[in-house]
Amino acid sequence: MSALRVCVEGVGLWSPRLGNFAALQALLCGATPPPPAARPAAATLPPNERRRAPESVLLAIEVAGQAVAMSGRDAATLACVFASSHGDQATTDYMCRTLAQAPTELSPTRFHNSVHNAPAGYWTIATGCHAPSTAVAAQHASFGAGLLEAVTLALSDQRPVLLVCSDTAGSGPLRKVTGCTQSFGCALLLSPTPGEATLTQLALTLTPLHAATPLPEPLASWSDTNASAAALPLLALLATGHGCCELGAAATLGLHIALENIA
What is the pLDDT of residues 9-61, one digit of tens each? Predict the structure, then answer.
């Protein structure tokens, strides 16, 4: 099939070791960027919501806000795709323990935060966004599946789309199952056409699933600590400004992605 082409206008990134996309660029240039704050700032949320929101929401809102700020777009107008392999693992662990031991003590607020599209809800309410939103989960292929969904939406509707992919560290028995030992989140602002804010253009081709592209040495082990860190091969390309990579988008489906500079 012919390649799907979409432009990148903004990039968001947060982990306990990197607080934004500029920190990743510095790391790949050999520098040692300062560590971020202990928790994502998520400044897009009103203060009361920020205090009550779980880490899973703060992480997603933080990277979404970074990508939108870089693009200069109005968040209220953006369709969005929120992807996560495991959702809010701490809340899921809490709910399982509470239902097993004292089900009548289950917190309605914690239950509200357990749904997979909770970050999308917080984001659209905080930004006043009435554009379409989608929540995606595809285990370790969640970033690739979310990217394919966002690119398809951007091209079919000819509109900019915000993609967010994030997972927090595992909690309780889930940590052994998911293997998530640290939080990681990223976001891309995608547009179907070039504009003043365009950073680069992606050419995506569907392929049979092959091995994921190896990461450069400073990041080599990071993808083992969080399923959403599967985005790192593409983020590394965006940070260096050239090259291609392959990502998983489903159990047997891959995405070959090449960066194309726009003159």
Answer: 999 999 999 999 999 999 999 999 999 998 999 999 999 999 889 999 999 99
Q: Tell me how far the alpha carbon of residue 161 is from its chain's centroid.
A: 13
Q: Are 16 and 6 in contact (CB under 8 A)?
A: no
C-beta separation of 28 from 232 below 8 A: no
Token pair, residue 79, equals: 């369709």
Measured at the CA of 175, the angle between CA 170 and CA 177, to 5 degrees, comes to 130
Q: If we measure between CA atoms, which residue out of 71, 2, 5 comes closest to residue 260?
A: 5
- How far is residue 164 CA from its own chain's centroid? 3
- Both tokens assigned to 227: 């399923």
Encoded amino acid at 186, one letter: C
DSSP line for 57-88: HHHHHHHHHHHHHHHT--GGG-EEEEE-SS--
**Dihedral of alpha carbons 75, 40, 67, 209, sign:** negative
- The CA-atom distances, in angstroms, between 14 and each of 48, 93, 103, 167, 232 are 22, 23, 35, 11, 12
Q: Where are the beta strands (DSSP E) in 116-208?
A: 133-136, 161-167, 184-191, 200-208
By the 8 A CB rule, do 116 and 86 touch? no
What is the domain class of 9-199 according to CATH?
alpha beta
- Distance of alpha carbon 81 from alpha carbon 151, whole angstroms: 10
pTM over 0.90: yes
Alpha-carbon dihedral sign for residues 73, 77, 81, 86: positive
